[in-house]
Prior knowledge:
Elements: H1 7-13, H2 33-40, H3 45-49, H4 52-65, E1 71-72, H5 79-83, E2 89-91, E3 95-97, H6 105-109, H7 116-119, H8 121-134, E4 140-145, H9 147-156, H10 164-172, H11 174-198, E5 202-207, H12 215-221, H13 223-232, E6 238-242, H14 249-254, E7 259-261, H15 268-275, E8 280-285, H16 294-307, E9 313-317, H17 327-339
Parallel strand pairs: 1-4, 4-5, 5-6, 6-7, 7-8, 8-9
Antiparallel strand pairs: 2-3
Amino acid sequence: MQMKNDLLLRVIKGEAVERTPVWLMRQAGRILPEYRAVRASVRGFIELAQTPELAAEVTIQPVDLLGVDAAIIFSDILVVPEAMGLPYEMVEKRGPWFPKTIGSAADLKKLRVADPQTDLHYVLEAIRLTKKGLNGRVPLIGFAGAPWTIFAYMVEGSGSKTFSKARAMLYQNPDLAHKLLDLITKTTIKYLQAQVGAGANLVQIFDSWAGILPPDQYRAFSLPYLERICEAVTEVPVTVFAKGAYFAMKDFSRMACATVGLDWNMDIGEVKQLVDGKKALQGNLDPAALYAPDETLVAQTRSMLTQFAGSRHIANLGHGVYPDTSPEKVKLFVQTVKEFEIAP
């Protein structure tokens, strides 16, 4: 199918573009009244994510309503541990919770490498339906959580400020940690390959809890598994977004990914120098800038775009859009990016 708007893919390939492409992490979500209406029609988040027709509908909403240059499939990174045999619940106003966690070799034996065609069929069907609904208007992004981030939830059992249980295992039982990370990695590779087979034009790996590890542990317990995924998923471009991993930019520049995502704490000039044109860069406006007065938001957005000049750049926030953000502010951000003239 001929892509009507392929700006995102062209930037990643290093081709000339007439303007900077833009999309937002968590663009399909609570900021949109239209999403909340769909969400209210089901019992909860998990039911919405597991209903392909509704997941496709909310995936497409930001393309229609916000004018973004890409759609990202509506799902959750924690469908992977559930598919491996560790189910979770989404507790309102508290986030994910795992009734059972992984703490021993006996727990590990209860897990399996998931088969995406059966265990995650609903995500693949949502991708197929979304592709049909988009009809080539913009690329569709698939995604998964990085093995370390998935590991953190499977061991901790919920979100945490410290993930002390998960981090303790790295010191107390590193062999068990590596075995669990290996299982997650094998599942994630199969899952992302299946997403590509269903129609995803590119995929993103979210290492949301990268920044809680010291550099030596990140290089031992995260980077090798990210590298395995990037080397295995070759049919489409791969983006790595590791929040807080400012110390790993040189490592990412050598990784077999196409794009590196930046959070809002990362210095654009420094990252450009470290990556040295080897990767496309994505990001990294402070999500809180969307609370600012219009003129401040416009100025901040233009400043970000100016700093990325000379690099292959995909405009985005430095993390997911906050749920109480006004859709009008998001539209202003998107429009500001679209109107920005790229220097020759």
